Amino acid sequence: MSLAGKNIFVTGGLGFIGSHTVLVLLEHGATVHLIDNLSNSFPRVFEHMKKLAGDKADKMKFTKCDINDKETLTKIFEKETFDCVIHFAGYKAVGESVDKPLEYYHNNFVGTVILLEVMRAFKCKNMVFSSSCTVYGLPEEVPITESAPLKAISPYGRTKLFQEDMFRDIAVSDKEWRILLLRYFNPIGAHPSGDLGEHPVGIPNNLMPYIQQVALGQREFLRVFGNDYPTPDGTAVRDYIHVMDLAEGHVSAVVKTLATPDLGCTPINLGTGKGSSVLEMVKAFESASGKKVEYKLVDRRPGDSVAVWAATETAEKELGWKSKYDVDDMCKHQWAWASKYPQGYDTPL
Ligand code: WQD
């Protein structure tokens, strides 16, 4: 599928998923203007992206900009016409959102209101939104379909759910809006080159960055949060999806919005449809890295669900997309990134 001649605006474009998605947009012929406020990313990411983009590097440009900065957003939209917006920008740490709900609601929700007001002013009404399986809360059954009940259980999750509700209301009020809500499951892995990956700031909340740091000898051991779940090995199950599969899913979503005048507002799960336990991920990373990952079994983490994995039929039907990489690929590519850049984007070149 080609995006030749299409100009895409990407918020959060220097983030983990945003940076990988921008590269895949370029591969499909698009030009990209990306913004990022650098609250959870680094200017150096753009250097790594330019290296990987090769002769397409001049097809992307970066502006340091916060989505709450209406003046700068307006200036950008005055100068350029965009065919579609992919909106990644937002705070995303579940635990932090419990301590700082106001910052999360302001940045994630009010920021999106401002972005949408600018889009509307310039008649850009095609949106691909970075949503999350977190809007399902603690699912009653798996695989989770897009029609499952929505009940976020953290301020972070509620910011995603409230944004989805806002998008649904906008689509009802103005039929010109075409909005896809992409609900990611657990994004992991890295660019196969090893030159782009996830760089969590501070102590990682998520499993795979933490496992990576244990394998690198930067942390002593992994705490496995609970081994008394009703799962085959007692540890919780998640649908881990390769960041490159996610990036391709976003390109398919942009193509879909451009080709579907009556799209309205549609949620789509982006997952593999397969579940892996915490201990299975430990073993997979050990075999990919050749390193021992020490761990200790500790109590469950409050708010965790037992098992979460996606129903993938909608993505296949609506986007013609399905994941290609398996857990071993995810761990192999993550290790390629980790061993090349053990301090992430702080690693001296
Ligand atoms: C995965 C599993 C933990 C760390 C989160 C967000 C969700 C989405 C994806 C943004 C769980 C276990 C973890 C550790 C562990 N992000 N674990 N030891 O909680 O499924 O989802 O990221 O949209 O919104 O909630 O991901 O990686 O934190 O945990 O045992 O040190 O690994 O208990 O079972 P989670 P996670």
UniProtKB/TrEMBL annotation:
A GO-annotated cellular component: cytosol
Keyword annotations from UniProtKB, A to Z: Carbohydrate metabolism, Isomerase, NAD
CDD domains with a match to the protein in the record: UDP_G4E_1_SDR_e (cd05247)
Pathway recorded for this protein: Carbohydrate metabolism; galactose metabolism
Key word NAD present: yes
Catalytic activity: UDP-alpha-D-glucose = UDP-alpha-D-galactose
Highest taxon listed in the record's lineage: Eukaryota
SUPFAM superfamilies assigned to the protein according to its UniProt record, in alphabetical order: NAD(P)-binding Rossmann-fold domains
The enzyme's E.C. designation: 5.1.3.-
Reported cofactor(s): NAD(+)
InterPro entries (alphabetical): NAD(P)-bd_dom (IPR016040), NAD(P)-bd_dom_sf (IPR036291), UDP_G4E (IPR005886)
GO molecular function, one term: UDP-glucose 4-epimerase activity
Nucleotidyltransferase among keywords: no
GO biological process: galactose metabolic process
Residue ranges of domain NAD(P)-binding in the record: 9-332
Family: Belongs to the NAD(P)-dependent epimerase/dehydratase family.
Protein name, entry field: UDP-glucose 4-epimerase
Organism whose genome encodes this protein: Chlamydomonas schloesseri
